[in-house]
DNA sequence: TTGTAAGCGTTATCAA
DNA sequence: TTGATAACGCTTACAA
């Protein structure tokens, strides 16, 4: 259990003052004579010196750290997002503290407090939708907040990175409509969430474009947690005039929904055409492979990190930025024309 | 951008000294008169005071943080593990800094340095297998290291949490053997890894128990990264005397392997009986649902966190501990008796 | 039981 | 271009 060398040890060994060493460490903070710089660098190397993050943080008042607040790392979408963000951050010398909320506002509030204690420079989050004042306080304390995937309508002045939710839902729905389907089930997130709203909006817009009326019974907004997807599938298929198409636009409920379809023994696409939101790695391993809306996770990660880092370095105009990236529709084999669908 | 209150502000407002406030914050560090304690608590609440983590870290020399170093968060196994660890840590007031190595020793070394800078109290990791001296240095600096899932043979004095690898592979293999299969392919991790070795060991042990000789050609140790699983599948099935059973014991290569099976159009279990390591959420959504070895991820998470925290608080005997948890074999529909398998 | 004051390892200010 | 030295906010002897 040795003690690590400090900046003072380095200074002493190099025969200079601590300020010189500090300036070698942070070049933009001041000039250093080339000769001394070499000497210092040599000593640093020899001693294996590394600056203590805590000391720097205390002095600077801010940590080279961003908080990542996601709902559920076990969800492949968030997991991949986290993977990319962690990776990207590392290349900028920034560490990521990960928190999970499990969609619970209390845990979210807790997480934010903790991140505040750590004086993180920024937070990337998929907000639960609650804690509006908490988010505001966080911002007022100088923490840069970027929402990814979802946002909170009440909260202005916050950067947002998401896919084109309205458009994605519209395209998926139009695909079904153009195949002749007229009763299309939609399983989406809570209407209280930005994604839930936007995707319903897109679904409706598509119907309007095709001059088809929408049946409220076919729209199911279910919570992200729990088995709501499966239940919705069950009740949709139990409808007297059951849908011939199904769009699962709630990323967290895709698995639950598909599991139920498999359990019930629904033949896809003969009995039901299916499109799901988000290209989980397994969606092409089912039979048939599922047609999906593929979220460009890498883009989401890169942009959100770019935004926090940009704000951290004050290199961005103050106006909040909203970045919407396009999500691809990836047709596979889970949709077929209505004519070929079982006529009952 | 307000400035947060400090311990001094609290002390002043409560009419006490900073040490009293500190003692209220850390009860075990000394006594406080009940009356003053209440007063301080009141002020803390009123001011919304929260101690700055960096200041405490600098003072005590250690952070209430553990580093989590995994190979790839995009892999559902690691993602779920991370989710549980983060969750569990939170309930102990500990934060988790996540790093990914992508199985690259350089990135791993980098990550360890960074964690050292942060003075983390402990590290939970799935080591690449390299960086032995780096791990040792980390320990010598007082950082508690716990390996989870895999370990490094050369490194003693380190806690390890894993499944019963030998036994799991043995049980999977015996299942196949008892179904009459005599040529069973094994796709596993590199022999340089503890899991790779152990699982091959279990595979061989099962064969011995059944007095069946093993064909080296059937054993494929492939890297965790890349498409080695798929390639191994391809070459195994191209063998003149091709296997009738396949065990994929490389968690990171399951997807690649199964994808290839699907691409080739192999009928499971008619053409090939299959067992894969790790119950990814989708393994029961394929057709047929796959028989799997299920790793008790929650147990792995709980134990590894328990170990780091235990060591952090010095509540554990110095001897390194090895915890092996049992992995369940979950039979589904991807294995059939040899007699029913296509006779060629 | 309480208060004073000395660290902890950086950065930043300001003379020199 | 350099070097003292004062923060930064907390913990912890040590005195009282």
From TrEMBL, chains A, B:
Residues 5-60 form the HTH lacI-type domain. This is LacI family transcriptional regulator. Pfam families: LacI, Peripla_BP_3. SUPFAM superfamilies: lambda repressor-like DNA-binding domains, Periplasmic binding protein-like I. InterPro entries: HTH_LacI (IPR000843), LacI/GalR-like_sensor (IPR046335), Lambda_DNA-bd_dom_sf (IPR010982), Peripla_BP_I (IPR028082). Keywords: DNA-binding, Transcription, Transcription regulation.
């Amino acid at each position: 259990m040795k003690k690590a060398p400090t900046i003072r040890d380095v200074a002493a060994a190099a025969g200079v003052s601590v300020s010189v060493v500090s300036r070698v460490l942070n070049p933009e903070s001041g000039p250093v004579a080339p000769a001394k710089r070499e000497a210092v660098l040599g000593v640093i190397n020899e001693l294996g010196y590394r600056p203590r993050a805590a000391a720097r943080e205390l002095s600077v008042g801010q940590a080279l750290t961003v908080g990542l607040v996601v709902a559920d790392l076990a969800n492949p979408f968030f997991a991949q997002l986290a993977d990319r963000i962690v990776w990207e951050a590392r290349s900028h010398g920034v560490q990521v503290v990960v928190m999970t909320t499990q969609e619970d506002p209390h845990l979210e509030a807790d997480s934010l407090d903790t991140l505040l204690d750590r004086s993180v420079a920024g937070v990337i989050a998929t907000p639960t939708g609650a804690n509006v004042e908490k988010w505001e306080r966080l911002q007022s304390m100088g923490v840069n907040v970027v929402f990814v995937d979802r946002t909170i309508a009440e909260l202005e002045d916050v950067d947002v990175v998401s896919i084109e939710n309205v458009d994605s839902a519209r395209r998926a729905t139009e695909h079904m409509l153009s195949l002749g389907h007229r009763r299309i089930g939609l399983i989406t997130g809570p209407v209280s969430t930005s994604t839930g709203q936007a995707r319903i909006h897109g679904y409706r817009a598509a119907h309007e474009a095709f001059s088809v009326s929408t049946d409220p019974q076919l729209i199911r907004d279910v919570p992200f947690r729990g088995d709501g997807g499966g239940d919705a599938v069950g009740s949709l298929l139990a409808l007297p005039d059951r849908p011939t198409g199904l769009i699962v636009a709630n990323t967290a409920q895709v698995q639950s929904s598909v599991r139920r379809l498999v359990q019930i023994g629904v033949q896809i696409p003969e009995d039901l055409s299916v499109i799901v939101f988000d290209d989980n790695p397994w969606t092409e391993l089912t039979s048939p492979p599922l047609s999906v809306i593929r979220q460009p996770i890498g883009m989401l990660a890169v942009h959100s990190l770019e935004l926090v880092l940009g704000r951290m370095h004050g290199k961005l105009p103050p106006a909040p930025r909203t970045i919407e990236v396009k999500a691809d529709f990836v047709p596979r084999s889970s949709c077929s024309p209505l004519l070929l669908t079982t006529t009952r």
